[in-house]
Amino acid sequence: MKNLFFATVLSLMALDVFAEQVDLNTASANEIAKSLNGIGLSKAQKIVDYRIQFGPIDTPEELLAIKGIGEKTLEKNRSKMITRLIRPSRPINPAGGLDEAPLNH
After folding, report:
1. pLDDT (tens digit, 9 = 90+) per residue, 64-98?
2. pTM, entire model
3. How is domain 19-82 classified at the architecture level of CATH?
4. Strand ranges, E, within the chain
């Protein structure tokens, strides 16, 4: 039973890696609400309104200025947020494999 539980947890974590990222500076409220956990259409619209009023969002931490978005929500979604200065990195796998990549030294 424990093995089944851990397998389920690991598979859900793997799905999170492939979760859709959203650019907070270009996405509509609907796209933001769809992509981020704990962000409904109302909060997503506040994000859009914030960027209209204050300009492009540089970092995810700026969302803490929006009423209703706290640290827990931010941390839950940080890897899905693309901002002007931060684009979450994805693993890079050279087409030929790691041994085929050019050396940097």
Report:
1. 999 999 999 999 999 999 999 988 776 555 555 55
2. 0.67
3. Orthogonal Bundle (1.10)
4. 22-23, 81-82
